[in-house]
């Protein structure tokens, strides 16, 4: 019985000791976790910056030629030569095509011969009219003869005028055999080769697009219209066009046209900007990213875009206080573009905001701060209106 009692007592003691060790380990582990939870969260942070920012409207635009001319012949005839290469720059007045001039030169000779003949007859009729007028005053010629001579003179004078018009028309048609460029521009593909018989006004020979200057058309939501009208009245508005996927290809221009009607189907207003395009960055038919500068906000608060987080209640930032704990601060976002967020409300210049490490943060978390220079400090001054 004693041995049995000792066995029971030994087991009880062993259980007590085991429980004590387990308790010790649990306390040690809880203390370790608590210590670990109290460690500062490493974050990157930067200061909110106050700086002038341009208020802008952004859109997708389409490049259009400043002028586009379809070149056609004004006379029927055989196309004998073209005097340019496809895609060549041409100036106004440059010769483009030649239509066989021989038939028109012969028509001019005939018209000039008819004019010479009728002028001779007119001179004779003038002398006859004067003669009969003199004889009529002397009573030698009858009034009927005088009237007849006068009518013949008047008819031949009209005939000569018609001949002069025919000569001018023949010269004009002969001149049309030399087809010249009506504008400065760049030629497109050749539609008719030498050797083809051309029918006036029906056969397109080439299209010339004027690309210096050049237009970019784009549409913006109609709610921008009051601001656009207001700022246009105050002065010229600058427009920048950037070729898609090529940020280095940029062109500067000015707003030149605001349509007189809002598109009821889309709720947008069509605008047009004019660009000098001296370096041929823009090309007809291209799609480009357009930035219309409306005005400048002199004291905008900007932070890197990654500092702004979105929660159930809207946008917020983590602001680092003096004691190195964080505060969740709701903000009103004016815009965000190119890595820069413009804060309309909720933040002051100089306040330190978290830019990386948000996932481990809760309000009141202690942080280990590493300062980073955000793009807000160096980014271009630009704001996209919503």
What characteristics describe this protein?
386 residues, alpha+beta, Elongation Factor Tu (Ef-tu), domain 3, 4 domains, 6-stranded antiparallel β-barrel, 4 helices, 30% helix, elongated, disordered N terminus
Walk me through what this model shows:
The chain is of the alpha+beta class. The protein has four domains: about 40-55 and about 300-385, conserved putative lor/sdh protein from methanococcus maripaludis s2 fold; about 60-65 and about 210-295, Efflux pump adaptor protein, beta barrel domain (Elongation Factor Tu (Ef-tu), domain 3, Beta Barrel), CATH 2.40.30.170; about 75-100 and about 180-210, RNA polymerase II/Efflux pump adaptor protein, barrel-sandwich hybrid domain (OB fold (Dihydrolipoamide Acetyltransferase, E2P)); about 100-175, Helix Hairpins, CATH 1.10.287. The chain is built from four helices and 21 strands. The protein has helices at about 1-35, 100-140, 145-175, 225-235, and strands at about 40-45, 50-70, 75-80, 90, 95-100, 180, 185, 195-200, 205-220, 240-245, 250-265, 270-275, 285-305, 310, 315-320, 325-330, 330-335, 340-345, 350-355, 365-370, 385. Strands 1, 14, 15, 16, 19 and 20 form a six-stranded mixed sheet that branches. A hairpin with a 5-residue loop joins β15 (about 315-320) and β16 (about 325-330). The longest helix has about 35 residues, at about 100-140.
